[in-house]
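S1.2 Input.
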Amino acid sequence: MAQWPAEPNSTTRTAEDPVFDRAEFATLADALGDDGVREVVWIFETETRDRLRRLSNGGQDHTTLVRELHTLKGAASTVASPRLTEIGRGLEQRARQGVAPTAADLAAIAAALNAYMREIATLGFSNPEA
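S1.3 Output.
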């Protein structure tokens, strides 16, 4: 498995991670049912987009920045998004070292989220707010 690059602004490792894990998602859907998993996915999307806005605005103290990225990592893992999980993991590690996400990092989060949501749509889940 590839390791995070040494450069502090790189998120290239995540290109190797799948956007969506169907088997893991099926397990979640079995546990929550279609309505439950649909709700979890839309909450995840909404909160991740809100998180991106906050991160884009900057100005978070160290604790808040680490918490935002830790939450991204955990939420992405819950909804079966390995790529977003790994982006969150790498950015959280960097945040713990005092390195804030760059514009490229935030673009990588947005791109991975959009790709994940496209995969979800192929399963017949539609956003109730769309």
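S1.4 Remarks. Residues 22-57 form the longest helix (36 residues).
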